[in-house]
Amino acid sequence: MSKSCPRGYYAIAPEGDRGFEVDATRVRFGRGLLAETGTAARALGMTRVALLSDATVAKLPFTQHVRDSLSCAGVAFEEYNDISIEPTELSFQRAIEYAKDGRFDGYISVGGGSTMDTAKAVNLYTTYPTADFADYVNAPIGGGKAIPGALKPHIACPTTSGTGSECTGIVVFDFVERKLKTGIAGRALKPSLGIIDAEATSTLPPEVVACTGLDVLSHALESYTALPYSRRKHVPGQPRPLSQGANPFSDLSCLEALRIVGAYLLRAVHDTNDAEAREQMMFAATLAGIGFGNAGTHLPHGMAYAVAGLAEHYHAPGYPDGAPLVPHGMAVIINTPAVPSAI
Which of 16, 45, 147, 274 would staple 186 via disulfide (CB 3.0–4.6 Å)? Predict the structure, then answer.
């Protein structure tokens, strides 16, 4: 999948796309910014929101900062904490059922990719209900139905340094009924705003920092080595897909994310008090999210869905006890060394 051309130049294949599109969520990055959630919600027109987090994150001080900020801004909220790590269609459906009669005009997610993706799914299925949950799920697993229009405002506040979900229009989940991992994709799913506060990662166990950091590595590597946009056939007048292929903009994001991971991942894992390393890993996660949100990933992520979806006994250390669990970053990275020989 090498571009085989000077960096920054993409040879146009016959009938290939002659342009690329840059589409990224607006983000705020810095320490202590979760205290701005309330004013940000107000600015987006929110008056009554669903505040989503998992049972562990709900008890942490930075989540209280979000509550206090909402209260000070006069934004009413209800909390939902029944979110599964590595969510399933069943956990999504529970959250959707909770929210459908809540009269919410916006959503705020505080947590890792599981929480942010749950908020995206809830926003979608409560705004545009469908008789069959699989209708919006990516084809060929599901119907691949297009999202009909805009969704309600969603502020995504990541508390792990890996998924980049605050920047993407992608939802990933375990489809338990079919024993596989899959997703839902659409530009409308992108959060309205990402508030990235590195202080939120200070309590993360080293194992979680490692797994999420390897997800950043995979996002950046795969997006950078993806087939370029200039080799994708484009029909004039048709919208470009989310995963349009590697392009000069995604290259910039991914290369910087790779540099940061190389410099700071081990430090962030081995020293919980290394605030600089953990902040840098949060920035790398966002950069890689912007990169793969515009380019797409490839083989390691595709192979990882089977690894995670078929887990029956393994449960990763450092994660809350529960059902068998192969964290997404772990499921991806174990496939990555095998991919160069297949490219």
Answer: 147
Contacts of 130 (CB under 8 A, 6+ apart): 136, 145
3-state secondary structure the chain: CCCCCCCCCCCCCCCECCCCCCCCCEEEECCCHHHHHHHHHHHCCCCEEEEECCCCHHHCHHHHHHHHHHHHCCCEEEEECCCCCCCEHHHHHHHHHHHCCCCCCEEEEEECHHHHHHHHHHHHHHHCCCCCHHHHCCCCCCCCCCCCCCCCCEEEEECCCCCCHHHCCEEEEEEHHHCEEEEEECHHHCCCEEEECHHHHCCCCHHHHHHHHHHHHHHHHHHHCCCEHHHCECCCCCCCCCCCCECHHHHHHHHHHHHHHHHHHHHHHHCCCCHHHHHHHHHHHHHHHHHHHHHCCCHHHHHHHHHHHCCCCCECCCCCCCCCECCHHHHHHCCHHHCHHHC
- Strand-strand pairing, 180-185 and 170-175: antiparallel
Pick the CATH number of 206-342 from 3.40.250.10, 1.10.10.10, 1.20.1090.10, 3.40.630.30: 1.20.1090.10
Q: How confident is the model at residue 2 (pLDDT cuts 50, 70, 90)?
A: very low
Using a cut of 0.70, tell me whether the model's pTM lies above it.
yes
Range 40-60 average pLDDT:
97
121 pLDDT higher than 90:
yes
What is the number of residues in the chain? 343
**Using one digit for the tens of pLDDT, what is the confidence trace for 124-176?**
999 999 999 999 999 999 999 999 999 999 999 999 998 999 999 999 998 98
Q: List the structure tokens of 16.
A: 């290939």
pLDDT for res 8 = 58
